[in-house]
Amino acid sequence: MNLETKFLNKHFSNPIVLASGITGVTGASLNNAIKNGCGGVTVKSVSIEPRTGHPNPTMVPFEHFFINAVGLSNPGVEKAVEELKKFRKMTDKPLVGSVFAGTPDEFAKITEMICEAPIDFLEIDISCPNVGTEFGDPFAYSIPAVETITKKVKEKSKVPISIKLSPNAWNIAKIAKAAEASGADAITAVNTVSGMVISPQARRPILHNKQGGVSGPALFPIALKCVWDIYESVKIPIIGTGGITTGEDAISMIMAGATLLGVGSAVYFRGENAFEKIVEEMKDIMEQENIKSLDEVRGCAHLT
Amino acid sequence: MLKIKKIEQENPFVKTFYFDYPLKSKPGQFVMLWIPDVDQKPFSIGYDNGDEFGLTIFKRGPLTEKLFEMDIGGKVGISGTYGTNFSLLENTHYIMVAGGYGAAPLGFLAEALNKNNQIDFLIGSRNKDLLLFEERLSKISNLNLHVATDDGSQGHKGYCTDLISNILDNKNNKNKLMVTCGPELMEKKILEICNKNNIECELSLERYMKCGIGVCGQCAVDPLGICMCQHGPVVKKELANKITEFGVYHRDKSGKIIKLN
Fold first, then answer.
1. Do residues B114 and B193 both lie within one domain?
2. Could you list the residue range(s) of the whole structural domain that residue B117 is in?
3. Less Cβ crowding at N or C end of chain B, within 10 Å?
4. ipTM of this predicted complex?
């Protein structure tokens, strides 16, 4: 039984990748996810300038979902590069950078800056649901915006790029197709879905930002359908992410067509070693179902 | 949401807010306090008798300013408890070192311990008007109180850490547990004393926290990368010695490193 995964030109000991935004931007906290079973990690999205994010509450857990509106807090790309260098000294496991910006030109600039760090891939976060219209209309819903950003980033990036899409986009498969045609090497699907929680006692939304991004088990079937649709429309590999909490979720996501699996909120639902629990459960299912490798079942749920 | 049951003014900058709720917390743990549309922050629990609990709070920002304007009956959101606690041992000589409002969780600990323990409680503040819980602590029968003030207006003139050597002198350091909560450089000094004298210790390590549930990573410490909301705030000597940033730097809410002076 083999969980080893080849993603583009990089080898992963297992397909579980820490999703962006979970457990921070420090080299040490990323390495802690490796110690807890991740095959690779994604850094929390960084911007050119530091950002403090929204006031609290920024993350609120419920039984079946998790909602957050952190507001893209990060120490800025320069400091983030230092942290990523620290990570590289601790481990040689694959590292995915992640950036966001307000304009296509700014995306190009930050891509150049983060490529100073020892990253293996770069995720382009065009789909954070928690900054409203701070950066204008969200890029993740617009084919021309995705095309422009992908081209500009691709031109500057020293590593393969993956465009991170929003499950709120009704035409996510078409957007993925446009990214592929513009030079994207992979697609990350999906970001959190836009949502809200209200406290009856306070008579107000709980998140300071009012709206936030929903992740956790409630997001899983939505993410699975997005990956399914994207797999039918593009040839480039997919990082399937959104609510993966168990080995069963993970294998289903591979069968929908994902190559790597982003895991994040599961650390709340199952503890900081959620990654190794999921890996063990994947192995159990593979044994029961006589699956020799993940390549054997990738996309198998689609009729051929 | 819980209603404020009682408010006590402890000194010009500090109030204790009491709530009628069986939180069943342990000393050293914390809750998150939320005022809608303002903010939500972690606060160490300063009192808990099983039926009601109290939070001793220093006024320092928008959230606490708003809280200080509230009266009895005002509602705030409380979630938790979170985090690790100080050990509740038996037949042990506790040396408690409290700097500033660190007196609150250690006062709670002193009250929660069995009477078969011996407690030396060292408390420090800038002057006698800022001293916290002198009366409350004096009611604990197995507790010896030692006071230090920076200006000498009460007790020893200087730091409360100056008083530790008197307590440690020519006594067996087995069965001793040093516990501390206060400014980080004071805690660092205590850790060094405990390392040198081979005494067990537990300290409360404060880091900027957002979620409190080990997800946001804001309170991850170097070089371990573990979150202090889960593995702290109370850490034992062995773990504290592995946290190399302790007493050196912390991170602000953007994640940027801020050096301690």
1. yes
2. 86-204
3. C
4. 0.92
